[in-house]
Amino acid sequence: MTSRRRLQGLSLIEMMVVVAIVAILAAVGIPSFNEWIQNTQIRTAAESIASGMQSARAEAIRRSTPIEFTLTGNGGTGETGWQIVERNTGAILQSAPAGEGSRNATLVTNPADARTVTFSSLGRVAGSNADATPVLNVIDIDNPSVDASISRDLRICIPPGGAIRMCDRAVTDSLDPRKCLPPPPCDV
Question: What is the DSSP secondary structure assignment for residue 151, as one 8-state letter?
Answer without folding.
Answer: -
